[in-house]
Design a protein that fits this description.
heterodimer; A: about 120 residues; mainly beta; six-stranded mixed sheet; globular; B: about 110 residues; seven-stranded mixed sheet; four-stranded antiparallel sheet
Chain lengths: ~120, ~110
């Protein structure tokens, strides 16, 4: 069965420090890959996506992610974190469904805390 | 361009009651998916609609149902509410369901069952 793993439940970084959030997936083919961010009480905002092509993708708010097929990973990075980045981050993988279409399978999320 | 709109934002219901949640997708988007988010189970896929047809359903009991209208707006219904149905229900819209199209989420409806 397909699965998504975010091994870090909580991460704390200092403002201005670099950030890397890990994501690994299990799937027999190359899936569609996404990172979403969720602030308390809010919905999910798409940060970036990978469908094909260049394995380093740029997103909004200065985030980037790199797809590594050999490691089945899609880690999210930011060179300098801002206090406003504190939120929960979800890695998601799009898998095709037998009825057509696809669904998103989410990781359990990583809660990011930013220390001033 | 307006985003995904979910109404109501908050609901409090009593066990045994039923509830209907509404989702208006982004204009031009024809696919609507629903997800349940709880602290214990995380984000779980409920179902997906495209062109008024339910194309896929997640592993939820029959008490959870939905429909999509000709204008792509969607509703989901939960009957005979249980305490465990308390969750944030998120709706996502996509241009089309096939392939790697990105999904845009609404702010969700927070359902509390007492």
């Amino acid at each position: 069965a397909q699965s998504v793993t975010q091994p870090d439940i909580h991460i704390t970084v200092s403002e201005g420090a670099s950030l890397e959030l890990r994501c690994n997936y299990s799937y027999g083919a190359t899936p569609y890959l996404f990172w979403y961010v969720q602030s308390p009480g809010q919905g999910l905002q798409l940060l970036l996506k990978y469908f094909s092509g260049d394995t380093l993708v740029q997103g909004i708010k200065g985030f980037e992610a790199e797809f590594k097929r050999s490691q089945s990973s899609f880690n999210l990075r930011k060179p300098s974190v801002h206090w406003s980045d504190a939120a929960e981050y979800f890695c998601a993988v799009g898998f095709p469904l037998t009825g057509g279409g696809n669904k998103l399978t989410f990781g359990t999320g990583t809660q990011l805390k930013v220390e001033l | 361009k307006a985003g995904v709109t979910q109404t109501p934002r908050y609901l409090i219901k009593t066990r045994g009651q039923q509830v209907t949640l509404s989702c208006s997708p982004i204009s031009g988007h024809r696919s609507v998916s629903w997800y349940q988010q709880t602290p214990g189970q995380g984000l779980q896929f409920l179902f997906e609609y495209f062109s008024e047809t339910q194309r896929n359903k997640g592993n939820f009991p029959g008490r959870f149902s939905g429909r999509q209208f000709s204008n792509s707006r969607s509703e989901m219904n939960v009957s005979t509410l249980e305490l465990g149905d308390s969750a944030l229900y998120l709706c996502a819209s996509s241009l089309v369901p096939q392939g790697g199209t990105e999904a845009f989420f609404g702010q969700g409806t927070r359902l509390t069952v007492v």
